[in-house]
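Sequence dictates fold. Below is an illustrative record:

_____
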Amino acid sequence: MDLDTARGKYSYDKLIEALEQGSTDILVGTQMLTKGLDFGQVSLVGVLDVDRLLYFPDFRASERCFQLLTQVSGRAGRREKQGQVIIQTNNPEHPVLKDVVQHDYERMYRRELRERKQFLYPPYARLVKITLKHPDKTLVEAAASMLAHGLRKQLEHGVLGPQTPLIAKVRNQYLMDTWVKIKKDTEKRLLFTKQVITQESRRVLLDKTFKQVKVLFDVDPI
């Protein structure tokens, strides 16, 4: 089950009905299976290649993995049948997987807060993602390097990148991301960082070489 197979008006209901009536024994699907579904006949749930979730390049990867595994585990054994969950991983000792198995929400929560404080991520910092895009890959890489260099000269810490995002090209435009982390301590720091980001972005765009480069800002991206 995915967005394509469940796109029709009654496709979704038919898939669920087939499983409930026993004409379908196995249902393979995407993450959309994890939320809001009540499968009375399901006694076994399998999650393949969970390492892709655990090691996804995002500071929220552990939190989201814990959330998804907890949700999908709830699909098995919802009524009179005993439920079983099998998770495929190369690292069964990973702290997140241990927390899922032991239903230890508190330990996961405390560890996440500790790590985010140590590495300066929300809720202890604001994040700004600056995306540059242009049809010429070499040109946008040069523009992103110039931007990151200018930001580091003034901000010193908290500048990450530039880096190529997972989706590196959209509508014939190559993308490059630079991230800025802003510690939540004073309003003065926030204002100064905002001024620096605006100033350095304008400096790049005023360069004749990069005048056609587009700049996008995403503050505290979800």
